[in-house]
Amino acid sequence: MKNIYILLTLAAFIIVPTGISNAQELVVNGDLELWDDPNNPTSWDNAESISQATTPIHGGTYSAGHTSSDSGTQDFQQNISSIVGGANYTISYYFLDNVTDAKTRIWSYWLDGTSTIPDHAAELRPGTYSSDNPDWQLFTVALTAPANANGFRFEVRVYHEDNNTGGLVYYDDFSFMAAGITPEPSNYPTGFDALAMGISINLAWTDAIGGQLPNAYLILASTEDNITAPVDGTAVADDVDLSDGSGALNISYGVEQCTFFDLESNTPYYFKIFPYTNGGADIDYKNDGTPPASTATTADVTIIESENFNDGWGNWSRVSVSGEQVWEIDDE
User: Fold this and answer.
1) pTM score
2) How many helices, marked H, and strands, marked E, lie in the chain?
3) Is residue 307 situated within a structural domain?
4) How many CB atoms lie within 10 A of CB 140?
């Protein structure tokens, strides 16, 4: 019995709850300890008017000085990949501004490929600047990546102050930390409603509430009443082409609406909405119970010509109306 007791005790120590993940740092050389040369820290993509500094420092041996210029805004930037839409991240860095001829602020974007995403403008592109202070200041914010984000442009800027230039602000210890995995959302959203507008259907809902809020929602669409719940660990990509009878959209928490366009006329469409946390292989849907569902039928219209111009001009021809022509109204 003594041996059995020891084995059971060891087993108790190695059993850990599933669904817990360590945080992961995504900024490379965020502590600015590695430099290719005195003006270019290693792994940073853009370093305008940046210089290596040994004092002041927040940690380690080096910081980065950023000099204001009369030629305009100067950028310091690193593009981060492997962002997961719907996942939680903490963004932070230290700055020191104690001069009257320079000021700084963050000016960052979520990315979808190379395209910027406008979400979180107040946090990532504020309207205010730094103010003079002899001490290091911490910028930090926790955000949920938009559902369509797969990258992040971590950028800070320096500006001249009151037309005075040549001042230095300093940065150190940049961090972009992926948070641990969060549990499944506590509840479904409410008031899920579909409304046909011609051959488009608008969907609206009220965000879910409860102990664990979702990061985003998956809306599934079908021309048949046969929608099945998504599977945990398998993310579903956006599919806005319902010509094959099914589609999907991922919508961030807080948006509370979306639209499916260019649908077949006089056709019923069925929809279900599933809140989720995390993303990628860690995505965790609320897929138990009865998900909210709605249906709407598009207008009974005859479409003579349809062209969304997404892939060119289609059957349309470009006509220029510039010139000295005189245009008149013929009311006969």
Assistant:
1) 0.65
2) 2, 22
3) no
4) 11
